[in-house]
Specification:
The chain is built from eleven helices and ten strands. Strands 1-2-3-4-6-8-10 form a seven-stranded mixed sheet, sandwiched between helices. Strands 5-7-9 form a three-stranded parallel sheet. The chain binds ligand LMJFFPRB. Belongs to the enoyl-CoA hydratase/isomerase family. Keywords: Acetylation, Fatty acid metabolism, Isomerase, Lipid metabolism, Mitochondrion, Transit peptide.
C-alpha cells in the first residue's frame, strides 16, 4: 500500500518535473535517484550515491522512469549509465536484505523482479555504458541490455558475485547469465562468484566492447545509432523470440520466487553472512 502511494506520488512529481524542464528547452526529467535525458539518444543515469545501490526507492524510481520512456513512442532506445564516479552500480541494496522483516523482504523482491522483467523484455534498444564497478545486481542491469560497453579500467569489475557473500543468485539471474556467456562459463563464474576485469569480461562475453574510459559514452552513442538503423518491428520480434522463454520462466513462478527469497534471506545463517560481509565492507575503510 505504502509503495503504491509512493509510486503515485513519484509519477506525479516526475511528470511535473518533466513538464517544467521541457519548458526550459532541456528535454529531460528526473527523480531523486534517476536522471533521464531525452535530447538525442535517451540516456538514463543512476545517481544514488555513494555506490548506486538499488534501494527500494531507487528501484521504484528506476521502474517509473523506464515506464515513462516506454510510453513515449518517440523514444526507441536508451543508454543506461551512472553519475556516480567509478561505480556503475553496487547492485541490490544490502540494507534492504539485512535486519528487516519478512514483509519487507517480500516487497523488496517483488520490486527487484518488476524492474528486471521490464528491463529484460523492454521493446526499446538498451545499451549500457558501464563506467564503473558493476557487481551482482549492477551486472544484472547491464546483462538486461542489448549491448554492453565497458570502460577499460582494471579497477572496475563486473560479475555475479553472490556466492562470495554467502548468498545464491536466483534462477533467473542464472538463466540470463547462461544466455549471455554459455552454460560452462556461467557455472564456473557463479560458483566462484567471479568479478571479471574489463579484459576478462570481454573475453568471456559478459561485455561486448571495452573502450578507453573517456570514450564509453561516445561509443555507446555510436552503438545506439547502429541499432536504431534496424527496423523496430523486426528487431523487437527477434528480441522477444530470444528472451520470452527466460522471462516467462519467472512470470509463471513469481509468487513462489518471492516466498523462496523471503525464507532464504530470513535464515539466521544468511543474515549472519550478510552481517559479516557488511562488516568487511566497513573495515575496508579503516
Ligand atoms: C536456494 C534458494 C535460493 C533463493 C533465492 C535467494 C536469492 C538471494 C539473492 C539476492 C541477490 C543479491 C544480488 C545483489 O546485488 S547483492 C549486493 C552485492 N553487491 C556487492 O557485493 C557490492 C559490495 N560493494 C562493493 O564491493 C564496493 O562498495 C564497491 C561497489 C566496489 C565500491 O567500493 P568503494 O570503495 O568505492 O565504496 P565502499 O565499499 O567504501 O562503499 C561505500 C558505502 O556504500 C556501502 N555499500 C556498498 N555496497 C553496498 C550495497 N550493495 N548495498 C548497500 N550498501 C553498500 C558500503 O558499506 C559503504 O557504506 P559506509 O559508508 O556506511 O561504510
Amino acid at each position: 500500500m505504502a509503495l503504491a502511494a509512493a509510486r503515485r506520488l513519484l509519477l506525479h512529481a516526475g511528470s511535473r518535473l518533466g513538464r517544467r524542464e521541457a519548458v526550459d528547452g532541456a528535454r529531460r526529467f528526473a527523480n531523486k535517484r534517476v536522471l533521464v535525458e531525452t535530447e538525442g539518444p535517451a540516456v538514463m543515469k543512476l545517481r544514488n550515491p555513494p555506490v548506486n545501490s538499488l534501494s527500494l526507492e531507487c528501484l521504484t524510481e528506476f521502474t517509473i522512469s523506464l515506464e515513462k520512456l516506454e510510453n513515449d513512442k518517440s523514444i526507441r532506445g536508451v543508454i543506461l549509465t551512472s553519475e556516480c564516479p567509478g561505480i556503475f552500480s553496487a547492485g541490490l541494496d544490502l540494507l534492504e536484505m539485512y535486519g528487516r522483516n519478512p514483509a519487507h523482504y517480500a516487497e523488496y523482491w517483488k520490486n527487484v523482479q518488476e524492474l528486471w522483467l521490464r528491463l529484460y523484455t523492454s521493446n526499446m534498444i538498451l545499451v549500457s555504458a558501464i563506467n564503473g564497478a558493476s557487481p551482482a545486481g549492477g551486472c544484472l542491469l547491464a546483462l538486461c541490455c542489448d549491448y554492453r560497453v565497458m570502460a577499460d579500467n582494471p579497477k572496475y569489475t563486473i560479475g555475479l558475485n553472490e556466492s562470495l557473500l554467502g548468498i545464491v543468485a536466483p534462477f533467473w539471474f542464472k538463466d540470463m547469465y547462461v544466455n549471455t556467456i554459455g552454460h560452462r562459463e556461467a557455472e564456473r563464474a557463479l560458483q566462484l562468484g567471479t568479478l571479471f576485469s574489463p579484459a576478462e569480461a570481454l573475453k568471456v562475453g559478459v561485455v561486448d566492447e571495452v573502450v578507453p574510459e573517456d570514450q564509453v559514452h561516445s561509443k555507446a552513442r555510436s552503438v545506439m545509432t547502429k541499432w536504431l538503423a534496424i527496423p523496430d518491428h523486426s528487431r523487437q520480434l527477434t528480441k522477444n523470440m530470444m528472451r520470452k522463454a527466460t522471462a516467462d520462466n519467472l512470470i509463471k513462478q513469481r509468487e513462489a520466487d518471492i516466498q523462496n527469497f523471503t525464507s532464504f534471506i530470513s535464515k539466521d545463517s544468511i543474515q549472519k553472512s550478510l552481517h559479516m560481509y557488511l562488516e568487511k565492507l566497513k573495515q575496508k575503510k579503516g
